Amino acid sequence: MNYAIILAAGKGTRMKTEMPQCAYPLIRKPMVAYVVENVLDYFDEVIAVVGYKRNVIMDILGENARYAIQEEQLGTGHAVLAAEELVQDLAGDSLILSGNMPLLDAEIISKAFQDHINRRHDLTVLTTMIENPQGYGRIIRNESGFYLEEIVEEEEATVLQKGINEVNTGVYIVKNEFLFPALKQITNDNARKEYYLTDIVKILQKENRVIGSFSIKESIKATSINDLYTLSIVEAKLRHDINREHMLNGVAMINPETITIGHNVIIEENVVIHPNTYITGNSIIKKGAIIGPNTEIHQSIIGERVRCRHSLVYNSIIHEETTIGPFAHLRDGAHIGPRNRIGNFVEVKKTTTGSNTKAAHLAYIGDTTCGSNVNFGCGSITVNYDGKQKFQTFIGDDVFIGCNVNLIAPIRIEDNAFIAAGSTLNKNVPKHSLAIARAYQVNKENYLREHDIHKRKEDK
Ligand code: UD1
Q1: What pLDDT band is residue 145 in, cutting at 50, 70 and 90?
Q2: Partners of 361 in the β-ladder
Q3: CA-CA 20 to 30 A from 349: which of 11, 60, 297, 447?
């Protein structure tokens, strides 16, 4: 059986955040989630080694991994040893990598694995060349430069070794049968007093095992994220690559460096995305939609030819040819039908609408089931909360709701009803009815003029 062992037990002190390092998000998705996705299809089993705030990592990965607990973080070698009980089949090979390497994609991993098998290596170390190798383990080769002899950490490296630009990426492929006996021989007799996983090179060398390397050409793909600056660089690379892919598939992007699209977003062709737009989660943008500028869409489905600008859309579904914005906020299960108009400063929450419904300006629609051809006048509100509980509003088809109407839920407004502007309703309205709930207007004729005269007299 082939295993992928992901090291995710460390705190990540250099990140200087409370969150465990591997949980830190990259385009709104935890970095360890990318790592698991990249290995999931290629390996029989994924094992995550967890320790510091392990519940956070376990919540992210759920059933996509089995978990080995490393109670104390005593080094990378010690971390892999924690997975021993879960590696029950010694016949295959294991990939070992860190949970903070989101750019190490499935293509590189599968090529390296294939190379390891073809060359019959017992251990393959994935290396790369970088300009500034500070902080990385250096790859020490024999005089011919062919054989990998050992990996020396920064703390133990001589001045000469520090000048070596070939570094250890922290990714290894190793035969299961040799891995654990080698790990048990590692000591912490070094500058950091840690059990270095890198020491397995020397140990397997002594046992005359076949050790080779696989070089990653594009070194940025092997980046481990250890601080927030590196995170920003990796995020920029990821953003660029994702956008490039979409543009080549027929998505137009205006000013693409300001557009952020998540890893799992699906965008169909003929979509146009304007600047300062974020689309994340498992969102789907269908053909012909025009999105942005200044728009955030998360975990939502946007229908064909929808126009959505200057707006926020979270966990919602919008059907075809609806226009959203400017400055609309749709959230928590807003399900907007086709050809609706949700306009300026309109908030919609946990609400479904039929077709051709309009709320063009300044409205709040929450916990509502609303039919087709409904007009919400400017300033109309579903009053869904009494300070303790939320209540439902039902609105049928062809209803006209005048400006500044309050519908105090629970309430039902049946088909073809007409609600007069300024009404505050707390009773159901039957079909075809006109509902008015406001004080009658009184005009006191000449009142002001008389009042004015009195005033002038007083002034004298
Ligand atoms: C390690 C390598 C170094 C390599 C570098 C690449 C060792 C000794 N050194 O550096 O040669 O160039 O990666 O980034 O392995 N972790 C645990 N438990 C622990 C310690 C670490 O799970 O006890 C996890 C961390 O959460 C992290 C990963 O292992 O995801 C790597 O740990 P880190 O401390 O960043 O690696 P280094 O030792 O600095």
Answers
A1: confident
A2: 344
A3: 60
